[in-house]
Design a protein that fits this description.
Length: 391
C-alpha cells in the first residue's frame, strides 16, 4: 500500500513523551518537538492491524515469548543484512538501553572501564556512570565535516586492564556514520585481542541511505560473533518504541546465559502483550513501508541541507549516512552551550537535543529529528531562520 508521510497527525494529549513531555525534557513546553527519536508518522498498517486484533481479544494477561519472535528476527536480519542467525542466539529484551545496563552489571565491577565513542547517545554515558563504572571515551575524530575512529587511542584504551566492555553505536547516533567493513574489523580485532566484550547497538541499522550498507559487526567472523552482543529492534524503523520489544543476538552461550540470568535477577523479562504481534508483523509484512520511508527521509535530508546552505550557512549539516537524527554543527554561531540551547529552544522555539548532552565532544552541536512531515520540518527551520537573522 501507499503511505502518506506528508500527513500531519495531532500527537498532543496522547501521553507522547515527544510532544506532551517536551517542557520537562527540553526546557520549554512551547517548543516544536524535534528531539527524541520517534517519528511523527503512522505505524505500518500490518502493525496497527496486529495490535488491534490482539486488543479485540479483551484479556490482557501475562504473555510469553512465542517462536514467532525468533523466526521473524531471523528472516528480517538475513533479508536486510545478510546474516544467518541461529534461533538459540536470540534473547528478548524490553529495549536496547536495558541491555547496556544489564551487560555492565553482569560483566564489570564498580571502577571498571567501559569504552564508548563520544559524542554518543547519552544513555550510553548514563549506563556507565549510573552503575559506578568509568567512562573511557574513544572520542571520534572530527575533521572537514566528517567523523572517523581514532584507532591508536582505541588500542590504548582497550589494553587497559580495567577495560571490560566496549559499546559500539552503528549506525552512530548522533553523527550518522555507517562504519565500513574495515573499520568494524579493526574495532572487533582490538576488542578480541584485549578480552573486551563488544556490545553493538544496531537499532538504526535499517535506516540506511543510498550509497551505504550496514554490516552487523558480529557477521564478519565467528570469532567476532563469539565476543559480541548485538542489539536489534523494529522500534526506530517502524515507530513502535512504546511497545518495548527488542531482539538481542548473543552467539556465545556463556555470555548469553549470564545475560539471561541477570535479566531474570532484575525481573526485566516480561514483554508488553501488544509488543510481540507488532514485532512479528513489522519484521514479516512491512518492508514496503520501509522502502517508502527511506525515500521520504532522504528527501527531508536534502531539504534540510538545502535550506541551511541557502538561509543559514553558519549552521552546517553533518551529512548523514543513516538515521533520521541530524547532527548540526552550530559552532560558527559563536554561542556557548547554554546560549545555543537558548537560541534554538527558547527563542526559535524548536526543541532539539543539546549537543553537550552527548559528551563534551558535542559542544556547539545540536541533534534534530527530521522524521516528520515536510511541512513540520519547514516550520522548524523557518522559526530558526527568524532568530538566525537577528544574530
Amino acid at each position: 500500500m501507499q503511505y502518506n508521510f506528508d500527513e500531519v497527525i495531532q500527537r498532543k494529549n496522547t501521553q507522547s513523551s515527544k510532544w506532551d513531555n517536551v517542557g520537562a525534557r527540553v526546557g520549554n513546553p512551547d517548543a516544536l518537538p524535534m528531539w527524541v527519536a520517534d517519528m511523527d508518522f503512522r505505524c505500518p498498517k500490518p502493525v496497527v492491524d496486529a495490535v488491534r486484533k490482539r486488543a479485540e481479544h479483551e484479556i490482557y494477561g501475562y504473555s510469553y515469548i512465542a517462536p514467532e519472535f525468533r523466526s521473524s528476527t531471523i528472516s528480517w536480519i538475513e533479508k536486510r543484512h545478510g546474516w544467518q542467525l541461529s534461533p538459540e542466539w536470540i534473547v528478548f529484551s524490553t529495549g536496547v538501553v536495558p541491555v547496556l545496563n544489564t551487560m555492565i552489571q553482569t560483566f564489570t565491577e564498580p571502577g571498571d572501564e567501559v569504552i564508548i565513542q563520544r559524542p554518543v547517545y547519552y544513555p550510553f554515558i548514563n549506563a556507565v556512570v549510573d552503575n559506578h563504572r568509568v567512562v573511557s571515551s574513544n572520542s571520534l575524530l572530527y575533521s572537514g565535516g566528517t567523523y572517523s575512529i581514532d584507532f591508536e587511542d582505541l588500542e590504548k584504551r582497550a589494553a587497559s586492564p580495567k577495560a571490560k566492555i566496549m559499546i559500539l553505536c552503528n549506525p552512530h547516533n548522533p553523527v550518522g556514520r555507517v562504519f565500513t567493513e574495515d573499520e568494524l574489523s579493526r574495532m572487533a580485532e582490538i576488542c578480541l585481542k584485549n578480552n573486551v566484550i563488544m556490545v553493538s547497538d544496531e537499532i538504526h541499522s535499517d535506516l540506511i541511505y543510498t550509497g551505504h550498507k550496514h554490516i552487523p559487526i558480529a557477521s564478519l567472523s565467528e570469532r567476532f560473533a563469539e565476543n559480541t552482543v548485538t542489539c536489534f529492534a523494529p522500534s526506530k524503523t517502524f515507530n513502535t518504541a512504546g511497545l518495548r520489544s527488542s531482539g538481542i543476538v548473543v552467539p556465545n552461550q556463556t555470555i548469553r546465559k549470564a545475560l539471561e540470568k541477570q535479566f531474570a535477577r532484575n525481573r526485566s523479562l516480561q514483554q508488553n502483550i501488544f509488543g510481540l504481534p507488532a514485532y512479528v508483523a513489522a519484521y514479516t509484512e512491512c518492508e514496503d513501508y520501509l522502502e517508502q520511508l527511506l525515500l521520504y527521509l532522504e528527501n527531508n535530508v536534502k531539504y534540510l541541507d538545502g535550506f541551511l546552505k541557502e538561509h543559514m550557512p553558519k549552521i552546517k549539516l553533518i551529512k548523514p549516512e543513516a538515521t533520521f537524527l541530524m547532527w548540526l554543527d552550530c559552532k560558527e554561531l559563536g554561542l556557548d552551550n547554554a546560549g545555543l540551547a537558548d537560541f534554538l529552544i527558547n527563542k526559535a522555539l524548536v526543541a532539539v537535543d543539546r549537543g553537550d548532552w552527548f559528551g563534551p565532544e558535542g559542544s556547539g552541536f545540536a541533534r534534530m529529528n527530521i522524521a516528520c512531515p515536510r511541512i513540520t520540518l519547514r516550520q522548524g527551520l523557518e522559526q530558526i531562520e527568524r532568530e538566525y537573522k537577528k544574530l
